[in-house]
Design a protein that fits this description.
With about 350 residues, the protein is of the alpha+beta class. It is built from twelve helices and ten strands. The chain folds into two domains: about 90 residues, no CATH class; about 230 residues, 2-Layer Sandwich (BirA Bifunctional Protein, domain 2). The protein has a seven-stranded mixed beta sheet with strand order 1-5-6-10-9-8-7, with helices on both faces. The N and C termini lie far apart (about 75 Å). Bound molecules: phenylalanine (PHE).
């Protein structure tokens, strides 16, 4: 038995040394030390040996198993080196460019929020944020949208169960929070996430981003609103952008307006994107309603000002001619990589 074992060791070592690749090597190892291998088969005869012989043959068999494993390891390393040498010999070209490492980048929305902040900081505005989980008072009541007011239906609200909270439907509650904690003169811009009970499609998402602007002082008027918005949107979208103010309704402003901008696709000539009008609807704005002033303890006889609120995805879609809002949330690198980064 001892002789047979030694013979087996020798044949195995020769076979291992001759293996031409990892698959072959693995096959050879299995054919000797596997459950149905030659070594196992040989050891079946162990039970017929005397106790004394068992004490010698047993450990020898284990030793052979270990040795073969070491041989397999060695051959595997050799094969790797051979493969590497073969590659680096004939066609290794040290002048070829390496693989460019993939580096992280800011999401276009994050990046755009930074641009909004830079733009408004340069206009002497402060930046503020508010909670995404809001109470009814800040999201509606203080904004001149009392209970049962039909305007509450204008935005489909996501309410929390059993507690009097909701996911804010716009960034306007941050106006209220800011006015509660700051005295005029006020200049603030508030970017953040908002939520609405909308089904997802190419232009709707139950979560999106807005930025809110608010300026309050004793003489702040529509000319300031027009000036600030023109400067900011030209910087954020396109230097040649023209703005058009159209009268509209929001409960928290009076007068209320919507701002259209010249279509970036056709430069105002009319195309399918702007439905041949040359204009694209951009944001809502107006002069802060006296009731809103009163709700934060400001005297509307003494103070006045403007507010505006714009959708960030919408703005980016117009700026970069993106036709599906879902692209912002799928995080496909092929989409994300197309945005300029500094
Ligand atoms: N909060 C409004 C909306 O989400 C936008 C808006 C803000 C309008 C401020 C007027 C003034 O649609």
């Amino acid at each position: 038995m001892k002789v047979k074992l030694e013979e087996l060791r020798a044949t195995a070592i020769t076979a291992i040394a001759a293996a031409k690749n990892d698959d072959e090597l693995y096959e050879i190892e299995r054919s000797f030390t596997g459950r149905k291998g030659q070594l196992t088969a040989l050891l079946k005869g162990l039970k017929d040996l005397s106790n004394e012989d068992k004490r010698i043959v047993g450990p020898l068999a284990n030793k052979i198993k270990d040795d073969l494993q070491i041989e397999v390891g060695k051959r595997s390393a050799e094969l790797k080196k051979e493969a590497f040498d073969a590659m680096s010999g004939a066609f290794f070209d040290a002048s070829l460019p390496g693989n460019r490492p993939v580096v992280g980048r800011l999401h276009p929305i994050t990046k755009f929020i930074q641009e909004i902040e830079d733009t408004f900081l340069s206009l002497n505005f402060d930046i503020a944020e508010g909670p995404e989980v809001e109470d009814d008072y800040h999201n509606f009541t203080a904004l001149n949208i009392p209970e049962d007011h039909p305007a509450r239906d204008m935005q489909d609200t996501l309410w929390a169960k059993n507690i009097p909270y909701l996911l804010r439907t716009h960034t306007s509650p941050v106006q209220i929070r800011y006015m509660e904690s700051h005295k005029p003169p006020i200049r603030v811009v508030c970017p953040g996430r908002v939520y609405r009970k909308d089904d997802v499609d190419a232009t709707h998402s139950p979560m999106f981003h807005q930025f809110e602007g608010l300026m309050i002082d004793k003489t702040t008027n529509l000319a300031h609103l027009k000036g600030i918005l023109t400067v900011a949107l030209r910087r954020l979208i396109h230097p040649d952008l023209e703005l058009r103010f159209r009268s509209s309704y929001f409960p928290f402003v009076e007068p209320g307006m919507e701002v259209d901008v010249t279509c970036v696709m056709c430069n105002g000539d009319g195309c399918h994107v702007c439905k041949r009008s040359g204009w694209i609807e951009m944001l809502g704005c107006g002069m802060v309603h006296p009731n809103v002033m009163k709700s934060v303890g400001l005297d509307p006889q003494e103070y006045q000002g403007f507010a505006f609120g714009a959708g960030i995805e919408r703005l980016l879609m117009i700026k970069f001619q993106i036709n599906d809002i879902r692209l912002f949330f799928e995080n496909d690198p092929r989409f994300l990589e197309q945005f300029p980064q500094i």
